[in-house]
Amino acid sequence: MANCDIKIQDVEISIRALGRTQIVKKHQRSKIAAKMICGMLSTTTSLCSISIFDPQRPTRSMSHSRAFVRKIRCSSLSPDMPITTEKSENGSLVTGAAYDFERSTTSLSQKLLSTPKNVMLVRHGLSSWNDEGRVQGSSNLSVLTETGVRQAEKCREALANIYFDQCFSSPISRAKSTAEVIWQGREEPLVFLDSLKEAHLFFLEGMRNVNHVQYLESVDARQKYPKEFTKWREDPANFDVNGFYPIRKLWVTAREAWREILLTPGKNVLVVTHKSILRALICTALGLSPERFRAIDVNNGGISMFSFNKKGEAMLQSLNMTAHMYSDHVYQI
Questions:
Q1: What is the DSSP letter of 273?
Q2: Which residues are catalytic?
Q3: Is 191 strand, coil or helix?
Q4: What are phi and psi of 93, to 5 degrees?
């Protein structure tokens, strides 16, 4: 059974837990901090006692003064939860916060997988509306440019040494064209998923997203819809159109996409899609909410990779790799 002693003083909180020592700066009064620390430790320890030194409590005499000590007992949901070190399915050592602690990660498949998986996520190459600085959303009018085709070819070359069991793609043209270039020469047919489509941004689609001197004939979204555009840029999770929240909806479709991808047989999977849905896929895999939408960025042709254990729990291996865009770099799994 794990035990810990915590002494809270004016300057710092010294924590001795499970044979490890941490120093935590004190931000609040000792009693509040004690509750916070106790709550934190209850998720990883079976039992802890907290000793609080209160300098303001009066004592009877200086010669017999003793620190006032308050004992707080806290317990976790699992009374006998040891720290473990074991090997994951791919042979690497994992401890605590990796795969073995309950609720440390979330199953995206909600079912056991037949085998662990590696999933490569690729953003489509440069599109016409990327180049023109327009809001794309779910519009099918933005197409892959010549630069975008070359970026897709660089992705194909960079992934040439990896055998993929399947490739999933958004059916929207710029992603579809990118997938077709990357998948060229592979035997399995492309699979197009509606759950990989980009977010639907209604009246903003096709409007100018940034000032672009060459394309002044397009309508500036900031000028025509200042309130809505500001909400979209600064608080996308709460951007709505008549009560419909595109980014919150994207989190739902991202989880649907993950289930479809993970429950398909095969060990290595390729996914080609759009920036916003990629943000949602990455965030849902990491347990991040829609409020973190703009915390993730992915370049055109950028490659990210997740590995999944048989429980469907994700571990991010790489994010937005672009070395292949500027060199002859080839990736391996």
A1: E
A2: 124, 198
A3: strand
A4: -75, 135
